[in-house]
Amino acid sequence: MPIQQDPTSRDRRASLKAAVQHMFNPMHVYCRLVDLKIQRALALKIVHSYESLLWKRVFPF
């Protein structure tokens, strides 16, 4: 007999997943790096590496 989950639990999980995806989105990371006064060209290089090494493996679409 499968265990049924209440819909609010599923909604919270989906909401948490969306928040994590937003926070760690490469564009969001780039903006935070620029906010930290990192030069845009360097921030772009960091984000390209971050995206190819981590983001695409954690959140494959």
Form type: elongated
Helix content: over 70%
Outline the biggest β-sheet. Answer: none
Distance between the termini: 32 Å
Radius of gyration, Cα only, in angstroms? 16 Å
**Overall mean confidence score, pLDDT:** 88
Structural class: mainly alpha
Total beta strand runs: 0
Total helices: the number is 3
Low-pLDDT stretches? none
> What order do the helices and strands follow?
HHH
Q: Into which percentage range does the β-strand content fall? A: under 5%
What does the model show?
Helix content is about 75%, strand content about 0%. It is mostly helical.
Topology diagram in text:
Elements: H1 7-23, H2 26-35, H3 40-58
Keywords summarizing the entry:
61 residues, 75% helix, elongated
Brief summary of the model shown:
With 61 residues, the chain is an all-alpha fold. Helix content is 75%, strand content 0%.
